[in-house]
Amino acid sequence: MPRLSTRYIRIITHMFYLLMFSYLVSQRSEKIIKIKRIDRFIVDMKHILLWTRLHTFKDGQKEFIDHKCDFINCYLTVNRSLFSDLRYFDAIVFNVQDVSRDAGDLPSTRSLNQKYIFAANNSADNYPVCDHRYDDFFNWSWTYRTDSTIVYRFISTFNLHGEELGNHLQWLEDMDPLDNFQKTQFASKSIAAAIIMDNCVSNSGREVYVNKLSRHLAAYNLTVDVYGKCGNNKCKRRNMQPCHWRIRKNYYFYLAFEDSISVDYITTEVLYAYDNNAVPIVYGGATYEEFLPPNSYLDGTQMSEGTLAERMYAVITDPELYYDFFRWKNHYSIRSSLVLNPCRLCQIMNSKYLVGQRPSYKEFRKWWNDNYLQRCES
């Protein structure tokens, strides 16, 4: 009987160890075969070569991820040797400064389906394209022009809910007047106009207009104060707040004069006025009613310096007339936009319809600047 008990004990002990061993093995096996989920970007990556550095774009997908784009399957690089052949890139982007300078450094081979994209962060008047090799060279354009393949704006309009209203605005015809509290914000103004200029000789000739306007305003005992390198009033670019405060406190108008005259070219110059409770006087090549709220500005391109001075005097001496220029603030806000928005680039690279087409700017130089012959001669 004792032998039998000992035998059973041994069997039970062996079974216990066997079960323990099986349990440990099963646990270890679970750890070995457990699959960890890995998030990967989708396979259909669009490789975009920046022929030279453009704007402040970083290599890789970072631009698209950081801006939380709807499409992030685009890859930027300046490495021309990323592939063994340039034709493997889905698109090649050329910036306006290089294109305007010369045509000596261009790809030697090109795929039939590859997109050559002209990208501009400055005006056609400042950077005309002169070399004939660029005619019938680009498939797409990425500029401020409203007829570009990829359009951006220097400024955008939002409603009071913060929703961007896009490029084709239907402005309100009857805007609410300012209340008494809003009117008190203009009580300290006493000087006709200001302008900040660091480029003293411009293609637009704005400095000439400013000088003539100043002479006409003098007849009404009104003045224009010039800030920046071109005037006696200094503004530090690293800290513009003191200048902004002066515009808000002292000036009725701000001369939002562009340094060049180009179709659809309207920069953030107007924000010096709009952000600081001054009425902008615009001077450029844009069709301003498409970009700015009605009766929120004066257009210097539509009147002589003498007529403008007379109009400014009439507005300054009639407070209610002046207040009407700010009715738009009860309905809209105007802010700076992202120039060369990478999200739009990646979005269009994912458009099968647009990618499948093979357009070309046959007369690119004329499209970009219809006055290119005279500008290139100068």
Q: The biggest beta sheet, please?
A: 6 strands, parallel
Count every beta strand, where a strand is a DSSP E run of 2 or more residues: 13
Q: What are the segments in which pLDDT stays under 50 over at least 5 consecutive residues?
A: 29-41
* Backbone shape: extended
Helix proportion of residues, in percent?
25-40%
How much of the sequence lies in strands comes to: 15-25%
Number of helical runs?
A: 13
Structural class: alpha/beta
Strand order of the largest sheet: 2-1-3-4-5-6
Radius of gyration: 32 Å
What is the CA–CA distance across the termini? 120 Å
Mean pLDDT: 91
- Could you state the order of secondary-structure elements as H and E? HEHEEHEEEEHEHEHEHEEHHEHHHH
Protein model, in words:
Helix 2 (62-66) links the parallel strand 1 (46-50) and strand 2. The protein has helices at 2-33, 62-66, 96-101, 180-183, 206-218, 241-250, 269-274, 305-316, 319-323, 342-349, 352-356, 364-368, 372-377; strands at residues 46-50, 74-77, 91-95, 115-119, 140-143, 150-151, 155-159, 191-196, 224-227, 251-257, 279-283, 298-299, 332-336. The longest helix is centred in the N-terminal third of the chain and has 32 residues, at 2-33. The protein has 13 helices and 13 strands. Helices cover 31% and strands 16% of the residues. The protein has 378 residues and is α/β, with parallel strands linked by helices. It is extended and about 125 Å long. The N and C termini lie far apart (120 Å).
